[in-house]
Structure formats: structure tokens, C-alpha cells
Amino acid sequence: MSETSKQAVERATAFEKTVLPNGLTVLVHPMPGFTGVYALYGTKFGSIDRSFVLDGKRWDLPAGVAHFLEHKMFENEEGDAFTLYAKTGANANAYTSFDKTCYLFSASSRTEENLDILLSFVSRPYFTEKTIAKEQGIIGQEIKMYDDSPDWRLMFSVYQCLYGQHPVREDIAGSVESIAEITPEMLYACADAFYRPQNMALAVAGNVTMQQVLDAVERAAIPEKTGVVERIPVCEPRQVAEKERSFSMPVSKPLLGVGFKEALPEPENQLKLEFLCDILTELICGSMTPLYRKLYDENLVSPGFSGEILSVPGALCTVFGGETSRPEYVRELLLQEIRRLRSEGVDAELFTLCKNQLYGELIADLENIDDVAAGLFSAFSRGRTPAEEIDTLAAITLEDVNGALQNLLQEEYSATVIIRPAGEKKGELAS
């Protein structure tokens, strides 16, 4: 490891952490010399959290509640947070993923005011039948927009084939029908259960100090919440729900998705297995691999064809996909390459290149205030630190990858989805 890399890793461990009496975790990474501040206030509550017990009462949520709640948290009786941010000049946003919801802002000045806005509207929910009905129409249009996105449809179609029970198979925003079931009582229950300080963290990076952040939290007077919350996990079988799916959309070229459902690891092995899966996607069809060169040189795929992993509570899978003129043939080439690597082993030089590429990306993220803050919260939500992530990746060996390949990416637990141009005749999948 070069001296520059060592210094970068040391910066990753330089963040300050405080757990307040109400349970809120505050993570601050002062970055002297930077003019901006990026703050992220997040909760470990996402679209897959569909069933829970709060103080003895069970709640079973329709799809899309976490995302719907994200939209509504920007409003209160006085107005909406975006209006307040406009006065300070900050850029604000929010997002919901499978396992988290985050509210954020970036600004070059007036840090205290922006922190006050962030902490005030997220901590004090306000819902009415009227405002919910209005939002149902707005989000309904958003859902229809994503339904028209081939890439989005491909991704969720693969998840639906791999998983029969896990909520990862449902769109993060839900459906028009599911969000129509949302009520104020339901949203208040979710806010009470998951927007409690002990389930949240405030991560801030840039030209800021821990004391500035703690002062803002004190001004917000975030109340401590009592009571018992229990998440109810889904029992997901090992087998895939559906081996093959094919449908048509108005696309100019077919899209192929091939997913592999993995067995869930023990918690202590989770981080290492995530990195092993990530490295394998690069070793199989990354831009430096023989397979990618063949696919690209023969004009079989578009440049965006790639692999990625999904790792959330209760689900771990790897998905390869993108545009291809010959989906059945490309699928077979992909499976052949996995079989070859399993039999012959991974090329040592290619392993080093791919690992160094991933390592470099982690180090590069330490130089951007938004990536630093987002990384702090992401690591917190999974019970680790950015430094542990870097150390885990650095320790992975060629032997680790070859050993993992004997159990991962098994065809028995795979599923294939093909989206064909409208009007194109459906073909048979290559065996």
C-alpha cells in the first residue's frame, strides 16, 4: 500500500462518533480545507420493512409505505422543508432504498440553519387524509414513469424470479393499488417505530465540527422514544421462484438479465461475502475480462452490460445484464465463463487488477464530502465502519475468490429474464 493510500485509509478512521442519551448516533468527519458541508439524516427503514410489531400491535404494510413516508416527512403544519432550504441556498433531497431512508442537504454556508431545518422536519411528522390523498396522486405518476423504464422493469423482474416471498421483489415505491391503502394511522405507526433516535444516525462531513452538529441536535430537542419494536422477517425458500420470464416492451434492442440467488451467510461473514460477490462480477464480465472483450468486439452487448450485487437483510443475489442483440447466446456465454473460472481458477493478474480497481474506488470516495457522509451512514446501518470495509477488501486473496466460486453463482439457483422489442417473436432460451 502506498503512503498516499495509507493516509487516505487513516482519514477514513478519523471520523468522530457520539451516541446521545436519546439513542441517536452522530457521525462527523471534519474535512479542513473543504468549503462545503454535506449532512445526511437517515433511518434503518426501507421498502423491505413490511411487517412489524409496535407495542404489541402487529402492522402489515402495503408495498411503498417507506417511500411514501419519505415524501410526506418534508411537510408540516407550517409548510415544507424545501421552501426553508431555498432561503438558505442549500441543495436538499431524500431517497428510499430497500433498507434505509435518508434525508440530506449540501451547502457552502449557513450550516447551523440548514442542520436546524433537517432535524426539525424529520423529527416531527404531520399527516392528514387530505395531504395523503394529494401525495397518492403524485407518487402514482412516479410509479407509472418507472413502469415505462426497461432497465427498472428488468431489475425487478429478475428479483421477482429469484424471490417468491421477500419484499425485495416489490417496487420500492409500491404500486398505484398498494399506496391507495395508506392511511395517516399507518404512517404515524411507521414514524413511531422506525423514526426513533435509536434507529437513526446523523452523518455530516466537510467544513464542520462535532460541536456544531451536537449544538444543532440539542436545539432540535429530539425526544426519546420508548416502547418495543420488533421486525418480522420473511421466510424465503432457497429455490428460485421462477426460472425464466420473457415479455415485450417498446425497446430498440432486447435486454437480458441473469440473476443468481445466494444462501445467506452468517453475520460475521456478511461483509467479506459481499466483497467476494462484487469482485466476481468484475472477474466475469468487467471491462478487463476476456468475456467482455468478446461480447463487445462481436457487438453482442452495449457498453453498459455489467454485473452488480444486491445485499439487504434476508436477500443476497448477483445480477448480470444489459442490452444485447442475442440474449440467449449471451446468457450461454456468461454461464460458460462461470463454469470455466470455477474449473480453471481465476487469473491471478486479473484478480489483482479487479481488486485494486474496487479498492481505488473506495479510497476515491474518501475525497468527496457527499461520499464520506453517505459512507458513514451506510456503514452504520450495517453495523460496521468505512475502515472495516476497506480492511476487509484489502485482506481478500485469490484463494478466497476461487474458494467462494465453488459455491456461488450456481445455475440451479439462477433465473433469466428477457425483454424483447414489441412485436419480436419470442425465442427459446438456450440450454
UniProtKB/TrEMBL annotation:
Residue intervals passing through the bilayer: none
Alphabetized Pfam families for the sequence: Peptidase_M16, Peptidase_M16_C
InterPro entries from the UniProt entry: Metalloenz_LuxS/M16 (IPR011249), MPP/UQCRC_Complex (IPR050361), Pept_M16_N (IPR011765), Peptidase_M16_C (IPR007863)
Domain Peptidase M16 N-terminal: 63-172
Residue span, Peptidase M16 C-terminal domain: 182-358
NCBIfam families: YfmH_fam
The protein's name in its UniProt record: Pitrilysin family protein
Lineage: Bacteria, Bacillati, Bacillota, Clostridia, Eubacteriales
